[in-house]
Amino acid sequence: MRAGMLALVLGLLSLRFLPVLPPVGWLIPLLLLALACLRTRIWPLGWFVLGGCWACWSAQQALDDRLAPALDGRTLWLEGRVVGLPTRTERGVRFELEHAESRRAQLPRRLQLSWFAGPELRAGERWRLAVNLRQPHGLLNPHGPDREALLLARGIGATGSVKAGEQVGQAAVHWRDAVRQRLMNLDAHGREAALTALVLGDGAGLAREDWQTLQATGTVHLLVISGQHIGLLAGLVYGLVAGLARLGAWPSRWPWLPWACGLGMAAALGYGWLAGFGVPVQRACLMLAVVLLWRLRFRHLGAALPLLLALSGVLLINPLASLLPGFWLSFAAVGVLVLCFSARLGAWRPWQAWSRAQWVIAVGLLPVLLALGLPVSLTAPLANLLAVPWISFAVLPLALLGTATLPVAGVGEGLLWLAGLSLEGLFRLLAQLAGQLPAWLPEPLPLWAWLLVALGALLLLLPRGVPLRLPGAVMLLALWAPREQVPLGQVQVWQLDVGQGLAVLLRTRHHALLYDAGPAHGDSDLGESVVLPTLRRLGVRHLDLMLVSHGHADHAGGAAAVRRGLPVTRVLAGEVAGLAPAALCESGERWRWDGVDFELWHWPQGTSSNDRSCVLRVVANGERLLLAGDMEAAAERAWLAASEDPRIDWLQAPHHGSRTSSTEPFIKALAPRGVMISRGRNNGFGHPHAQVIERYRRHGVQVHDTALAGALELRLGRQGAVVEGRAQRRFWREGE
């Protein structure tokens, strides 16, 4: 039984690693082959193929439900029902629409929409909306998250922005939304959003600083509902019934054990329903159901079988769950605890078991965090040692009891006030820990080094007395394995995918330069959310120079966040206003790093901010790159007049490929091999202009576009080609 389930799970998980899906027509022969294998000695292979077939079919259904390419960027009137919990932001409201209908097109089942300055929305309401629809898409940067995979796993077939709308149907009373409104309107010492996250699993209202604190201390799971909360509530209900039965206070005509198991399971399902039934909640409820069923039969059940049943159950319900980082973290954490606490000889005191649980999870999840490219919290063992009981025995009971008694005047509010007070104290403690030792975002390891770390972590988790535990600790030194170095005389150039903006990283052997820092508008700062994490993942711990081409928000907006997050030796800018301390870019300044030559050009007489962009030319082993910022036609003419030899090999497209730039004389004089365009997909400026693209192609220039290709990598000085981020095939990108 276990071997078959394990093979089934492996088949379901294989979906995560497929570059393309097999044609649907192949699934029927594969299914027949699997059924034939089940009657032979290689029956585990049959279960593996069955799992793979089900996963591939489910994935194909999800892909077929995505917005048709012909509708990408079009604005349609549609009507649908609001589902989930709409989220209010500084700029408007984000929400999901289900079963949307349009007279002009067939639409995906679920849409994720944003409405600038939109009204308050309630779950269950029906709206008629004019929506600019877009295919599921996301920024793709080295070692960063893949938003397209996340949207596919959540069943989002299209995204869009609302242009206008009218309500056409009232919502029935949606108790989950009503509970959220009550919680957010309470006085809970400023921790109303944290209570909402804990009770409903809705963390959208948490401030950015709170998220950073939770991530830095490895305690996100405490407020985003996890299996721990489900198990704790079920255990409290089970223990209450068992205690009453032991004291003789439970009705004798009601057998206490079935009632304890049933009420515990009902409490878990109720809390899961309240929380929206995410993957950790599904896993916990499935495991709990198995354990309680076995308990009813008075049989001892190990922890491994419930874990395997939960894993197979979650994947059978939604095979695309394996695309979610939370799926791997949730099951890996439970698996580590099962490995370390089952089948051990001797007993541990409660405090010993509790402290060991924290360090074994920290060690066991290390390879998973490295593989997913997630931060590693160095304070997580200590933070969880304190925070888990704090949440479990102080905050959570008060929060749930307070929520349940909100209809009783004064009672629910008082309990939630106490829960908020306790949360405020916890956040202050966590903030101090995060300030002392921030989370570590390591560079991606070579495969051999990651395998050593994974093996070392496994050996460390084995019981005391097992040989090779000490070598396991030594294997963890592979965390500091040497990474590939940029050769002398070359530059590693990364044009990051930052949407409608620009950020270019240049690294020589011992130096790093950032040209522009990405856009920032309102509550969206890509310098903080994209540029800074990507620099850290690429191993940049210090910037020798940050060069901001000019003062527009799509180039300079993220500069402040980058400077807060990394030491920056020097800042130069085409316009220094708002960037102090920064020095003004001056034409003719040259320097040499590790055999690579850099030269600046600036036109202070430019009549526009774009034309005053600071331009950087880089020469490595005779190969040339020009970073042109947003300069337009007048600045292009001035640059040509000032340049003795304008020829280059690679060009960052001026002003995102606008019609006012990339003039015919400019392209002809530069004669680049390739041009790299940084812009947002379906942007409102129409960048790049069709005439500009045609102009480049007419001159034989190869066009690379971040909106279509993701981040772009170029090794200047090696006479190679640009490597596009989407060149690595994934089945959810096969339409790219």
TrEMBL record:
Top-level taxon of the source organism: Bacteria
SUPFAM superfamilies for the chain: Metallo-hydrolase/oxidoreductase
Membrane topology, record value: Multi-pass membrane protein
Keywords, alphabetical: Cell membrane, Membrane, Transmembrane, Transmembrane helix
Gene3D superfamilies, per database record: Ribonuclease Z/Hydroxyacylglutathione hydrolase-like
Protein name (record): DNA internalization-related competence protein ComEC/Rec2
Organism listed in the record: Pseudomonas soli
Subcellular location: Cell membrane
Transmembrane segments: 230-249, 256-274, 303-321, 327-347, 359-378, 390-408, 415-435, 447-466
Pfam families listed in its UniProt record: Competence, DUF4131, Lactamase_B
SMART domains: Lactamase_B
NCBIfam families attached to this UniProt entry: ComEC_N-term, ComEC_Rec2
